[in-house]
Recover the amino acids of this structure.
C-alpha cells in the first residue's frame, strides 16, 4: 500500500510550445513532488510532428481527428515525439533538479497496442472502415516500470508510441494514452492540461465554466457543451475514471500555478469529473 498521492498530468497544447511556460509547469511539478506526491507525465506533440514531417516532405493527413500515420511517416513521428519533445522535457526537468526519465510505451513493454481503424459515417447513414495506417489503441498497460521509477523518486515522462504483441509500432492519441495510463496506475488525480479554463457552456464567457461533472452526465452534454477538441479530453477522463483513477480535472496549462492550487491548496478550479458517490 502506497503512502503518497499519485498524479498523472497530460501535457500538450499552447503550454507545450512556449518554453517559459514549460519551465513554469515543471517548477510547479517539482513543488508538488516535494510535497509528497508521485507525478507521471504523458505528452503528445502535434505541432512538432508536423514540423518534422514537413522538413522530410512527408505528406500528412487526418481522419476523424487522428493523424493518418503511414509506415513511411511513423519513424518521423517517433523522431519528433521521442527525440525532440521527450528529450527536451527531460532536459528541462533535470535542469531544475527534478530527476526525469524519458519513456515511450515501448519501454519495458509498458503499453501494448492494437491497430485502430476510423469508422466514418456516410451520407446514407452507413459507416465505412477507414485505414489510418500505424495508428493504434491501447489494449494493455503494465505499470511495473513506472511504479519502480516512482518508488525511486524519479519523474517518468511518457510519449505516446507503443508496439503491438508482434512488435509493430503505433502512434497513439496522447489523450487516450494518458487516460489509460492514469487508470492503470490508480492515480488519485488525473490532470488534463489544455489552453482554456475548463469545460465551458459558452467558450466566450468565463462564468459559464462547468466546475463539477459526474461521469453519468457526460452523454447528455456530448456535441452540445462537450465538442471539438474537448471531446477527446473528456473521453480520456472517462477512460481514467472507469479504470481506477480517483478523479479527473481539466485545467488551463497556460496558468501553471493552477497545478499547485488544485493539488496542494485544494482550490476548486477547472472542471472536475468524478464518478457519482465515489
Amino acid at each position: 500500500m502506497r503512502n503518497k498521492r499519485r498524479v498523472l498530468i497530460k501535457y500538450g497544447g499552447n503550454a507545450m510550445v512556449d518554453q517559459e511556460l514549460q519551465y513554469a509547469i515543471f517548477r510547479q511539478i517539482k513543488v508538488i513532488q516535494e510535497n509528497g506526491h508521485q507525478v507521471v507525465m504523458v505528452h503528445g506533440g502535434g505541432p512538432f510532428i508536423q514540423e518534422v514531417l514537413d522538413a522530410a516532405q512527408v505528406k500528412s493527413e487526418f481522419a476523424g481527428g487522428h493523424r493518418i500515420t503511414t509506415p513511411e511517416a511513423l519513424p518521423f513521428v517517433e523522431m519528433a515525439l521521442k527525440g525532440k519533445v521527450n528529450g527536451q522535457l527531460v532536459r528541462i526537468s533535470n535542469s531544475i533538479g527534478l530527476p526525469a526519465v524519458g519513456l515511450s510505451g515501448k519501454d519495458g513493454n509498458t503499453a501494448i497496442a492494437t491497430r485502430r481503424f476510423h469508422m466514418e459515417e456516410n451520407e446514407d447513414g452507413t459507416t465505412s472502415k477507414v485505414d489510418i495506417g500505424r495508428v493504434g489503441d491501447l489494449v494493455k498497460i503494465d505499470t511495473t516500470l513506472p511504479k519502480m521509477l516512482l518508488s525511486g523518486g524519479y519523474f517518468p515522462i511518457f510519449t505516446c508510441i507503443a508496439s503491438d504483441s508482434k512488435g509493430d509500432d503505433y502512434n497513439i492519441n496522447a489523450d487516450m494514452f494518458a487516460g489509460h495510463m492514469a487508470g492503470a496506475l490508480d492515480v488519485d488525480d488525473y490532470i488534463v492540461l489544455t489552453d482554456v479554463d475548463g469545460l465551458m457552456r459558452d467558450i466566450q464567457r468565463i462564468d459559464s465554466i462547468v466546475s463539477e461533472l459526474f461521469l453519468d452526465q457526460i452523454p447528455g452534454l456530448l456535441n452540445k457543451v462537450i465538442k471539438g477538441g474537448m471531446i477527446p479530453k473528456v473521453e480520456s477522463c472517462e477512460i481514467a475514471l472507469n479504470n481506477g483513477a480517483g478523479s479527473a480535472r481539466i485545467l488551463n496549462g497556460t496558468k501553471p500555478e493552477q497545478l499547485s492550487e488544485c493539488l496542494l491548496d485544494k482550490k476548486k478550479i477547472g472542471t472536475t469529473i468524478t464518478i457519482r458517490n465515489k
Remarks:
- The mean pLDDT is 92.
- The first strand starts at residue 5 and ends at 11.
- The chain has one domain: 5-274.
